[in-house]
């Protein structure tokens, strides 16, 4: 039943998958208990299917439980715990709970770097997710600096024409535009309070340089 559900997921037949995964989780819970590894795996699989169906609240409820169990049974630094943390963070992001997502995602790249190295796919994906959340929270400078690092890694590992590299470059360009717009808005706001004879000193260009924007 579980294998068939995974096949349905691979084929994009998510409703059929969830109709199998729900009873699988119920059976594992009844037969093995809530703390058994198979039960936790089944819970994570069902949560991912809910997520893929856009049923984010249901996914969140399961993912919070998975993360708590992984943390308690395996420890904070175990790979499965870090994956669970990342899954929960993405669900928080999609529910608009970006501050909660950020609190989780800020921990993840360092953990992956320690376990897998700075250039592993998981590490780079975690950095991309963190950059996206930072952008959503309008922390443009932090997002831009992080994404620059990502683009450097992707260019070196995947090549400049890889789809992942191109996607990150597109996001980087978007961030640069957001930074410029944010700088212009702030410069205009400050200019209102500056005496008329001094306004010419505070150009957009000098303001961007002061904020260390590219």
Amino- and carboxy-terminal Cα gap:
54 Å
The major β-sheet equals: none
What's the gyration radius in Å? 22 Å
State the low-pLDDT regions, or none: 189-214
Please report which band the strand proportion falls in: under 5%, 5-15%, 15-25%, 25-35%, 35-45% or over 45%.
under 5%
| Number of distinct helices | 11
Tertiary shape: elongated
Structural class: mainly alpha
Portion of residues within helices: over 70%
What is the helix/strand order? HHHHHHHHHHH
Describe this protein's structure.
This protein has 214 residues and is an all-alpha fold. The chain has a domain at 138-214. It has 11 helices and no strands. The chain has helices at residues 2-10, 14-32, 37-52, 56-74, 79-94, 98-105, 108-116, 121-136, 140-157, 163-193, 204-210. Helix 2 packs antiparallel against helix 3, helix 4 packs antiparallel against helix 5 and helix 7 runs antiparallel to helix 8 (121-136). The longest helix is centred in the last third of the chain and has 31 residues, at 163-193. Residues 189-214 have low confidence and may be disordered. It comes from Mycena chlorophos (Agaric fungus). This is Kinesin light chain protein.
Task: Give a brief description.
79% of the residues lie in helices and 0% in strands. By secondary structure, the chain is mainly α. The longest helix has 31 residues, at 163-193.
């Amino acid at each position: 039943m579980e294998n068939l559900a995974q096949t349905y997921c691979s084929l994009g037949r998510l409703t059929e998958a969830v109709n199998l995964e729900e009873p699988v989780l119920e059976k594992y819970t009844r037969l093995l208990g809530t703390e058994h590894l198979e039960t936790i795996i089944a819970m994570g699989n069902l949560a991912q299917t809910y997520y893929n169906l856009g049923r984010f609240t249901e996914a969140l409820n399961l993912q919070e439980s998975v993360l708590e169990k992984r943390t308690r049974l395996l420890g904070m630094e175990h790979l499965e715990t870090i994956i669970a943390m990342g899954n929960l963070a993405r669900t928080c992001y999609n529910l608009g709970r970006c501050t909660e997502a950020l609190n989780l995602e800020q921990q993840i790249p360092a953990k992956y770097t320690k376990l897998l190295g700075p250039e592993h796919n998981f590490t780079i994906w975690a950095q991309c997710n963190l950059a996206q959340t930072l952008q959503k929270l309008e922390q443009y400078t932090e997002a831009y600096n992080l994404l620059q690092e990502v683009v450097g890694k992707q260019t070196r590992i995947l090549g400049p024409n890889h789809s992942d590299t191109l996607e990150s470059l597109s996001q980087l360009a978007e961030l640069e535009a957001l930074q410029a717009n944010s700088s212009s808005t702030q410069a205009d706001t400050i200019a209102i309070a500056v005496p008329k004879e001094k306004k010419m000193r505070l150009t957009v260009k000098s303001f961007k340089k002061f904020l260390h924007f590219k």
